[in-house]
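Q: My labmate handed me this sequence with no annotations at all. I'd like to see what the chain might look like in three dimensions before we decide whether it's worth expressing. Could you predict it?
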Amino acid sequence: MKTLFQNVRFWLRRLGIDGAIAYTLSAQGYLFISRPLLLVLTVRYLSIEEQGYYYSILGLVGVKTLFEMGIGNAIIHKVGLEYGANDNNVHSLGRDDQPNSVRIASIFQSTLLIYSIIAVVFALVMLPLGWFILGSGGTGVRYARLSWSLVALATAVTMPLNISLSVLIGMGRIRQVALMKLWAGIIHSVAYAGLLVLNYGLLASPLGLVFVVIYQFIFLAIYFGSQLTRLWIKTVDMNRVSWLHDIFPLQWKIGVSWLSTYLLSQAVIPIVFRTN
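A: Here is what I predict for the chain of 276 residues:
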């Protein structure tokens, strides 16, 4: 068995597939297989009315694109440039004599603070908006507002979490983050399927999302807690990065393209749901 794994690893490396690519491909392959099965379970265990609420909730979650505006990709780009310029960058993030290390800390601190505030704004805006659009639930529909409340709050929490993950990717921790995302997809799909079978209805997907958020917190705390803490407490009086001048000019270009996709594909769902 060991020889088999060694041969597989050898040929994967010959093909240029490292751990990061392998985990990413595995995640996409898992989604390709699991999504049709989850769709069957959704049709089987959710009524027609519940399915309407379910897809409306998914459409409302997409508003997150408006609040994030492509910040993740912009951070990966900026942090990657700074990290690549560090001397002996694997071990230099805790050193004060590395100006690029200070700039990475500045990026992390400023964006984490800003998007923690934006996450709060998202929750304050989207919670009542979702309650208004969804109402209290139609005939035979349970937990409509509770489901949206869980989704909105969990989605808000993922905003600062995604800042941390984007910084880690920019610092070359691509394989670890890809592995985490693979397990996050597995956790959500298994939880969703199991809770559907157990007749949790609309609560199945929100609870699955809550499990994923908890898992991400644990993952970051165990594997990168000390590293992220050093970045957060590092003094950045010198070489400070301005989110408005250094990051936003790239961010808004990415965000506009994502927002256009959302408006064309998902935004109409909750609108049609409310008007009908």
